[in-house]
Write a structure and sequence with these properties.
Layout (H helix, E strand, L loop, with lengths): L9 H28 L4 E3 L2 E3 L3 E8 L8 E7 L4 E6 L5 E7 L5 E12 L5 E9 L6 E3 L2 E5 L3 E4 L18 E5 L20 H33 L2
Parallel strand pairs: 2-12
Antiparallel strand pairs: 1-3, 3-8, 4-7, 4-10, 5-8, 6-7, 9-12, 10-11
Length: about 230
């Protein structure tokens, strides 16, 4: 008995081709979306406490239309009590001050242009006022060998920042609690709050151990009884 090999019909071939194209397109989209998301100039951390101090790091992983980055000019928002740019051997730093003597802008110029396939970063220490606004936007002008990109867009109320083409890095400011760092009122009497739970757990373990020992003794007794003539 001979067997015949069936060839796929044209309809099936077209469906398979469309499926393969859809999978390939989805894979390309999955790669492209993170790449677009990482194209922005970002700030870390993106949350601080009013009246506190912190170090902000501004990073990027691309240039202007694939042109290497030469400098970043970061404008300071109102609500900062102090700004101290971090000295870095890869960048020169130019500080601008307003009439009040406070830092108004900082320009970091790369000693060598940063290629588009490498991540670049600059940082600065900042001090916040007690009455800093709920959010601090840091407009950034990214200058490149060819061209420049201004990351200055700020989302309106209810607008998704991710929908903006060139959003400015934003730091959220939380209100100070006033209780101070590291306060633990529950432990003021010198007793650890977890002590009762630990004691309860220890009692449970000891009780379980006693029950197991009792069952073991019962089994031994039964076996010994059965072995008697």
């Amino acid at each position: 008995m001979s067997r015949s090999t069936m060839s796929p019909t044209p309809a099936r071939s077209h469906r398979a081709a469309r499926l393969a194209a859809a999978i390939a397109g989805g894979a390309l989209l999955a790669v492209a979306v993170p790449a677009m998301a990482s194209a922005h100039v970002t700030v870390s951390p993106d949350e601080l406490i009013a009246g506190d101090h912190g170090v902000l790091t501004f990073s990027f992983s691309h240039g202007c239309e694939n042109s290497p980055t030469t400098s970043l000019r970061i404008t300071m928002p109102e609500g900062l009590a102090s700004v101290s740019p971090t000295l870095d051997g890869d960048w020169t730093i130019d500080v601008e001050r307003g009439d009040d003597g406070l830092v108004s802008a900082v320009t970091y110029t790369a000693l060598s242009p940063v290629p588009t396939d490498l991540r670049g970063a600059v940082s600065m220490g900042v001090g916040l006022d007690e009455e800093s606004p709920a959010s601090l936007a840091f407009p950034v002008e990214q200058r490149c060998v060819d061209g420049a990109t201004e990351w200055t867009q700020i989302a309106e109320n209810g607008e998704d920042p991710h929908s903006l083409d060139a959003p400015a890095p934003v730091v959220t400011v939380d209100a100070a609690t006033g209780s101070g760092h590291g306060d633990h009122p529950d432990a003021a009497d010198g007793e650890s709050p977890a002590a009762p739970a630990a004691e309860s757990a220890g009692g449970t373990i000891l009780g379980a151990g006693g029950l197991v020992a009792g069952l073991a003794a019962l089994v031994v007794s039964v076996l010994a009884y059965r072995r008697k003539p």
